[in-house]
Backbone:
């Protein structure tokens, strides 16, 4: 079982968060699509589970930066999943989506370990604001620019600032570099990186990771920062 990581403290940048991976647990397909489309506009990856059974599969096989959890699901009460998550010491933020507006229901949701709740129906701008607020509380709002060796990484601008000037990173390049920058000295296997960069619905091979690693290496050429290959293990960000 995965213990979900909290990446919010590295990804907060002045009120906006860099691309992150969310899990949406919602049985209403129309609402789920609308939420995914809205959050996708900010570049976030949103995996969708329509029931508790699929949600547990996602939880036990992947890592997420935030979970949006409906309460009334076809195969049970979403609160049982929330209890399961907290009992397993997973600290990923959870926002509960509920049609119940009674104070007792809201209190019980928060007591189970939810970070926030949103009563249906809701406005999508409020959903986005709640997501930002929860991640901001968890992350604490750290600096936008991160120094790594002799380069600077500007998350908000999506650029690497090297001696020769800034280099703009494309979407997947940016997310891949974030993974490395957020976990210095950690070794990432290709399957692990596929999990971090792509949703379940995206049919990609591990060769895609090789392509994006090669692009980052080209951007980093001439600096003290490099992505090294550990044969049989994976990749790691290194500073010479």
Residues:
């Amino acid at each position: 079982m995965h213990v979900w990581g909290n990446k919010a403290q590295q990804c907060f940048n002045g009120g906006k968060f860099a691309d992150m991976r969310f899990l949406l647990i919602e049985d209403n397909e129309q609402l789920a699509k609308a939420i995914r489309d809205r959050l996708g506009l900010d570049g976030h990856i949103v995996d969708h589970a329509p029931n508790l059974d699929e949600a547990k599969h996602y939880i036990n096989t992947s890592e997420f930066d935030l979970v949006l959890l409906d309460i009334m699901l076809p195969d049970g009460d979403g609160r049982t999943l929330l209890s399961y998550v907290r009992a397993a010491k997973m600290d990923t933020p959870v926002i509960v989506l509920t049609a119940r507006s009674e104070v007792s229901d809201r209190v019980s949701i928060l007591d189970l370990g939810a970070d926030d709740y949103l009563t249906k129906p809701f406005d999508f701008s409020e959903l986005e604001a709640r997501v930002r607020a929860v991640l901001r509380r968890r992350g604490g709002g750290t600096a936008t620019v991160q120094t790594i060796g002799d380069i600077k990484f500007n998350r908000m601008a999506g650029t690497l600032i090297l001696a020769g000037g800034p280099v703009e990173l494309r979407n997947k390049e940016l997310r891949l570099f974030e993974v490395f920058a957020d976990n210095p000295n950690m070794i990432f296997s290709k399957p692990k990186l596929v999990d971090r960069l792509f949703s379940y619905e995206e049919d990609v091979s591990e060769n895609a990771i090789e392509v994006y690693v090669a692009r980052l290496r080209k951007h980093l050429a001439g600096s003290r920062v490099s992505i090294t290959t550990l044969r049989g293990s994976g990749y790691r960000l290194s500073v010479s």
